[in-house]
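Quick bug: Purine nucleoside phosphorylase output formatted oddly.
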Amino acid sequence: MKVTDKKSARFLTIEDWTKEIPSLVAIFSAKNGGVSSGAFSSLNLGLHVKDLPEDVISNRRILAEELDAPAANFIWADQIHGADIRKVTHNECGAGTLLFENAIPETDGLWTVERNVFLALCFADCVPLFFAEPDSGFAGAAHAGWKGTVLNIAGAMVHEAEMAGTDLSKLKCYIGPSIGSCCYEVDDFVINKVKNCLGENEHKSFIKKTDLTYSLDLKEVNKQLLINAGILESNISISSLCTSCEDDLFFSHRRDQGKTGRMAAVIGWRN
Ligand SMILES: [Zn+2]
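Here's what came back:
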């Protein structure tokens, strides 16, 4: 995901994917070019963060227009840092778009094999995972904070893809902008969960800083989980962007001490 002007960027695309698969929409929004103000300035796409709902809905319209995708065909989820995943179809289009109460309940991963259905999840430091495979038509997105990561939502989505008839050797995964190990300090409690979910590969993903703290690379943990689930390393790409470091580009829950907006990861197939 390249950015030419960080202060004006509205969204970032996965260049390699869109070049190779023109019918695929796969983007991660930035925080600029919207109508929200204050802590939510300006392209806040989260309806659940006490921003003015009418501003968020305007921002979502801006996003849909830029993607040339119908706003009514987006599907949003009520994310709870779990590992539950839902298959969605045209029947769910519009869920959570105008009203948070109508979002797909208690779900941190969405996937579809239908065209003109755009899956949208909200982020402000957690790891966005994108999945795409044109032959089976599988498109998925998952929200992996540390909790979803150690619950292995990455592996759960790969399992869903396989059940949907996807040849795993062709499934592409993209690990999007999220808090980097540069800015992500955690304690033993989290590290022990990482060790439990990764086994022998865990040593690559964290460094001990003090007696009580570690810097954790959640992107790397997710990469290892994807490989463990059967994804070829050559089919996994990782954004180098840290949401906390990149203040001009992104909201960051940690950096902004909880009061901030949300970016969106969106994936779907054009008609
Ligand atoms: Zn950072």
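Actually, after a second look the formatting is fine. Residues 53-67 form the longest helix (15 residues). Closing.
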